[in-house]
Amino acid sequence: MSFFDDLLVLFTDKDGEDEEKIININDDGGSDNSSNSGKKSEINLFKVLDKLPVGIILLVLLLIYSSTGIYKVGPKEVGVVTRFGKYIRQAESGLHYHLPYPIEKVYTPQVTRVKRIELGFRTIDPGPPARYSKKKKEALMLTGDLAIVSANAVIKYKIKDPIQYLFWIKNPDDTVRDASEAALRQVVGQNNIQAVLTGKKTQIQLEAKELIQKTLDDYHAGIYINNFLFQDVSVPEPVEDAYRDVASAKEDKHTKVNQAQAHRSQIIPTAKGEASKIVKEAEGYKAKRIAEAEGNVARFNKLLEKYKAGKDVTRTRLYLETMEDILPELNKIIVGNNSQGVLKMLNLDKVQEEGVR
């Protein structure tokens, strides 16, 4: 028997005995159909309520209303209780009670759950195989050297402060996505395209994560950014071929530069060695010439002293020394001083053959 059937037994008079029996028969699977039984139960319920004291009815209703304040906080949740919309307390996991609505209301956000936000794309079907849709307005960004890149990223976050999370921001997912897009555009705009695509990709992710966290803290969002990861960073499809050509040209440039530097590394040491050799030879020649000049100066100074002491003697000696150096290399013809008339030539044939020097 149901609770209302028990009430019927207690409060119906003898005139209602037949109706009670009908209800009991129907509850036990009797012959009457369910629709008729339901109608009669409702009729009997109203009769019971009419016969109950008003105080008991109000008490029952009050108990039912009061029981709506019982709530449970899960192990991964935290309870946030408000009274007339104003925060008053938090509740840990377990059974708790708050004043029934609309006096108090409880929120139970999952503070340990890590949520995922997608930037530049949306997952249609996780698969496998996974299917995605592109969001070009979010993905296309301008680099510091005025190039365009398409950046897709995944942001993971969780609740850091449940009170701020519930009452300071209206839509947490949209707030995180907007802050992430703004932060990523700022960081990408501070780097050239090569750094964004390859060179500083990891550093850009870290800088974007820090900037997103700072922005959310300024908003008092009560959100902690667990991770920021690029899903894909590339040039837009319409300019992909042109970018490949530019990249290929840059590779050729680097190759030529490396070859030139290698050749430079080979040539410069050789040139330096030759230059050092020439410098040393020049220094040796310089020292030699200086020594010779100094020797000549000393010799001439000595001659000058002797010349001053005896000019005729010195002049005669210098003449004779000079003749000693010159005459041995010449063919000589000696002519007597006493010869008169025709000049007699000795060894004329030999002189004609060898020549006179």
Automatic annotation (TrEMBL):
Domain annotation Band: ranges: 68-247
Which Pfam families does the record cross-reference, listed alphabetically? Answer: Band_7
Q: What is any one of the record's Gene Ontology cellular component terms? A: membrane
Q: Where in this chain does the entry annotate a coiled-coil region?
A: none
| Complexes and interactors | HflC and HflK may interact to form a multimeric complex.
- Give the family this protein belongs to, as stated in its UniProt record: Belongs to the band 7/mec-2 family. HflK subfamily.
The record ties this protein, via PANTHER family, to:
MODULATOR OF FTSH PROTEASE HFLK, STOMATIN-LIKE PROTEIN 2, MITOCHONDRIAL
Protein known as: Protein HflK
